[in-house]
Design brief:
- This protein is mainly alpha-helical.
- It has nine helices and no strands.
- Helix 1 (17-30) runs antiparallel to helix 2, helix 2 crosses helix 3 and helix 3 runs antiparallel to helix 4 (67-81).
- The radius of gyration is 17 Å and the shape is elongated.
Length: 174
């Protein structure tokens, strides 16, 4: 059964159409999806058995369509499917978990995690706080902000990512 505004945790089973839309809604709320990504995302959701008029229309549009039209159709598709985006705080916590999973899968480097964007994310579990504490606003500020040399930081970042990814999610969802 699908719960509104939630999707499977990273590394979980392959999402169905509604779960794929929920994941997209979460990613959109946390990180902002590029409008040109939305038609393909809609096509994937349709292929996974989600089906709404707005989703069909969105899947048929070019990525070069006016970004406002793409966003409007995406929001309408979510509404028609009964998928409520999570609040921004929850979406950011799930984005943090996805980033940790990407680090472990070598989909992103530790330097790729360094960003001021994480400063607004509030960790509510020990695993979230430990991982966030290792994310400097930029890679060049590593020694100043985190107080570790690069090698130690990379090792601790991977260890904290592992702890976060294997921890039971504090909130259900994307």
């Amino acid at each position: 059964m699908h719960t509104e505004g939630t999707t499977p945790a990273p590394g979980g089973p392959a999402p169905g159409g509604l779960d794929a839309l929920g994941e997209a809604a979460c990613r959109h709320r946390a990180e902002g999806l590029r409008p040109e990504e939305l038609p393909m995302l809609a096509a994937h959701a349709l292929a996974a058995d989600a089906d709404t008029p707005a989703l069909c229309e969105l899947a048929g549009l070019s990525p070069r369509t006016d970004p406002r039209d793409l966003r409007e159709l995406f929001e309408r598709a979510l509404s028609e499917a009964g998928v409520a985006p999570p609040d921004r705080r929850v979406a950011r916590r799930h984005a943090l978990r996805r980033a940790a999973a990407q680090l472990l899968a070598d989909g992103i480097t530790p330097d790729g995690l360094a960003s001021e964007d994480w400063m607004e994310t509030q960790g509510e579990t020990a695993a979230e706080r430990a991982f966030l504490a290792l994310l400097p606003p930029c890679a060049c500020c590593l020694a100043y902000t985190v107080g570790l040399d690069r090698r130690t930081w990379e090792g601790r970042s991977r260890a904290a990512a592992g702890a976060l990814v294997t921890a039971v999610p504090a909130v259900p969802g994307c």
